[in-house]
Specification:
heterodimer; A: alpha/beta; Hypothetical Protein Ychn, Chain: A; 5-stranded parallel sheet; 7 helices; 5 strands; globular; B: alpha+beta; Translation Initiation Factor IF3; 4-stranded mixed sheet; 2 helices; 4 strands
Chain lengths: 132, 76
Amino acid sequence: MPSKTLFIVLSSGEHEKLQIAAMTASVAAVSDRPVQVFVSMNAVLAFEKGKSAAERYQGGEISKIFKEKNVPDALGLFGQGKALGDLKMWACSMILDLKEWTVDNLVDGLFDGPLGLTKFLADAEDGELIAI
Amino acid sequence: MSERQIIDARGAFCPGPLMELIAALKLSAVGEEVEVLSSDKGSVTDIPEWVKKVGHTLVTTTEKEGYWSVVVRKAK
């Protein structure tokens, strides 16, 4: 029986939360489970094109340890999930409108497009949804 | 039979070793084996779990000095 699609609402831009979202999404996707990620609120800012790792990844104590050790890069993990599994990522259209951005303002190769919350929730009705 | 591919993922943390294994398996032919060297203890249990979930074959898991060797055969 095929696995239920995992829907993730990622709203925090905190490094530790980006990391667990990226780990969950990528590992599920490479384990034959379709995944869809809806990136909203401050999380959108972490995907802004042109930021350095220091600007992109800001967090607490565990974030500092991530930076000291050889922990996989969060955005890199999302990319691996897309390359090796069925992972789709959507940028919240409301936040893009508020920032006067398009998906072109976000890092290349990760986003499948802008999406509204209503459509994402409708798609998620038959799957499992977690919010981070 | 082709030579076994070895992925040295020592020093990488979860899920790095698993991702490196999957990328290598994707490029392998059915029946070929990939050996992952990992110092990440979590990956030593996670990799066999992933292998079981997606239907490949776990050949061996061996503890070495300060790291583990996990050998996986591509089954599909």
